Amino acid sequence: APAQIAVTGLAVMGRNLARNLARNGFRVAVHNRSQARTDALIKEFGHEGEFTPAADLPELVASLEQPRKIIIMVKAGEPTDAVIDELVPLLDKGDIVVDAGNAHFADTRRREDALREKGLHFVGAGVSGGEEGALNGPSIMPGGSPESYAALEPMLTKIAAHVNGEPCCVHVGPDGAGHFVKMLHNGIEYADMQLIAEAYDLLRHVLGLSATEIAGVFREWNSGDLESFLIEITAEVLSQVDESTGQPFVDMVLDQAEQKGTGRWTVQVALDLGIPVSGMAEAVFARSLSGDVVRRKAAAGVLPGPSEAKADVDRDAFIDDVRHALYSSKLVAYAQGFDAIRAASDQYGWNIDLGAMAKIWRGGCIIRARFLDRIKEAYDRDANLPSLLVDDYFKDAVANGQDAWRRVVATAATVGVPAPGFSAALSYYDGLRAERLPAALIQGLRDLFGAHTYHRVDREGAFHLDWSGDRKEQSA
Ligand code: NDP
């Protein structure tokens, strides 16, 4: 029988996705630019299901039932375009091309447009969960047309992660919506990891706890509101001992965080949308700073820190304060992330169901967390919630933790431990809740130096002061 679906690009992600499909009983045609990966897949895992190896794309296309469904899982960017260009002339109207790589959503919109003109469906599908998720059940965020989703749904929902029997896969919206949401997921992941790293750093430097002791703290946190994959693996990494030195593994790792770019994209896009995503921005900047070896070397041990580098805190109380700071800051990062999704959804007419996004992130993906149930519930209560932070549940959570959060930020500043994520999140929270912001002064300055005009609190209209003349107000 012809294959039901094809995967081209058999590096870690594509290979595991193909195996996941085969293990779930689907007949999968497989192809890779260099044949060795195809051969290796068949040799090692051919027994797992019905695979049809193909030596080239024409052979791959010929092995499929119609309408054809082809998943591209190659390096994002030009390689994806190269594969699409080679594939398109081989396809017939109604065929479905899925890009499951980490494409920029603007590329996905362009590709969707181009293929639609040829009568083909193009689905940009975000896939999260890394290697392990691809094999055992990822979180899947497909965009594209509703017709193409209807055709893919039985397969995608089967291979996705499941939480309480529900698949972590839903049609996100048209064209680039799926890749946009996947990008945002990665941005949130950046913020989450930065906050975790700050919590670790504070416990280490303020309390002098060992990596192993901090692993225990995270393990305990993982049984409460913070329960999540990232908190769980933090405990795992912190308790790891380096084999060759006997030192904590984390102490033997070079402290320069790398990035592949999805966090940076998120921040760039959010800047264009005009949505503050300070949690993600600080996370991206913190990674950049960590990798800025030249400047760090020039400053380390040269720039003075505080004279009073010890904080007088109670061990257990401080641990609990840091937990609150982490939870509240994390909540801010998610609130900002969902604001960005809503803004993009409005701008591009995607009509994204925010609660459904929280739902499909509960399993499979890197940011899977207990907390996402609370977000889903918040949007169930009010689909038009202006910010997650004003939902009653989250409002109370922050209200309970804010004094602790403030103490942690103050302590970090006092002892000179960088906590850009915690402090930016707190500033955002205070900015959001402020009845009046100093933006009024900024408007005044703008009007003085650039005649940019201002609005008044008591009257409609735009105004300008004749700053260099009689300082009389005029209607602009
Ligand atoms: P890589 O991103 O390392 O890409 C390697 C694959 O791309 C190989 O199959 C390679 O073929 C193929 N390729 C590269 N250039 C071309 C080209 N010009 N034409 C045809 N094929 C080409 O693989 P991953 O499995 O890590 O990731 C695949 C996609 O999934 C990427 O878009 C990635 O961003 C995304 N992703 C990755 C995750 C991860 O955890 N790794 C998680 C989620 C998404 P060849 O063997 O011939 O070199």
Automatic annotation (TrEMBL):
Alphabetized UniProt keyword annotations: Gluconate utilization, NADP, Oxidoreductase, Pentose shunt
Entries under InterPro entries matching the protein: 6-PGluconate_DH-like_C_sf (IPR008927), 6PGD_dom2 (IPR013328), 6PGDH_C (IPR006114), 6PGDH_Gnd/GntZ (IPR006113), 6PGDH_NADP-bd (IPR006115), 6PGdom_BS (IPR006184), NAD(P)-bd_dom_sf (IPR036291), Pgluconate_DH (IPR006183)
Domain 6-phosphogluconate dehydrogenase C-terminal: start-end pairs: 178-468
EC id: 1.1.1.44
Pathway membership, UniProt: Carbohydrate degradation; pentose phosphate pathway; D-ribulose 5-phosphate from D-glucose 6-phosphate (oxidative stage): step 3/3
Catalytic activity: 6-phospho-D-gluconate + NADP(+) = D-ribulose 5-phosphate + CO2 + NADPH
Family: Belongs to the 6-phosphogluconate dehydrogenase family.
Function field: Catalyzes the oxidative decarboxylation of 6-phosphogluconate to ribulose 5-phosphate and CO(2), with concomitant reduction of NADP to NADPH.
Record note on quaternary structure: Homodimer.
PANTHER family: 6-PHOSPHOGLUCONATE DEHYDROGENASE (PTHR11811)
Protein name: 6-phosphogluconate dehydrogenase, decarboxylating
Organism: Kribbella alba
Taxonomic lineage from the root: Bacteria, Bacillati, Actinomycetota, Actinomycetes, Propionibacteriales
